[in-house]
Amino acid sequence: MTRARAIAYSRVTSTLRGVGAPELWSREKQCVREAADALLFCADVDEADARAALAAAAVLADHLVMHARWTPRRAQRLLDDIWACGPGAPVELPDAA
């Protein structure tokens, strides 16, 4: 694990701590935690668990935006932070809805 990955993980957990119950339900917070954990502890983003967790987080982000619970910018920032927990070089992720 690198310092950059640890800092990204810290941003994700800070986001979760700062989000009240009306904004994210506990199962939604769990989805975000699982994605960040999977990427933080994987050696390669092509690992099935990491890809599945990231895909679940992307679906959640789209859902939050589609139902006007989060702005697209906020959802994208969360996805970027989750991705940054992983071992790969930063890449451009598709925008959340």
Key phrases:
mainly alpha, 66% helix, globular
Distance between the termini: 31 Å
Secondary-structure element order, N to C = HHHH
Structural category: mainly alpha
The backbone outline, from C-alpha atoms, is globular
Quick recap:
The chain has helices spanning 3-18, 26-41, 48-66, 72-84. The chain has 97 residues and is an all-alpha fold. The chain has one domain (3-84).
Can you put this structure into words, describing what you see?
It is a single chain. The chain is an all-alpha fold. The radius of gyration is 12 Å and the shape is globular. The model has no long low-confidence stretch (mean pLDDT 88). The longest helix has 19 residues. It has one domain. It starts with a helix and ends in a 13-residue tail after the last helix.
SSE topology sketch:
Layout lengths: L2 H16 L7 H16 L6 H19 L5 H13 L13
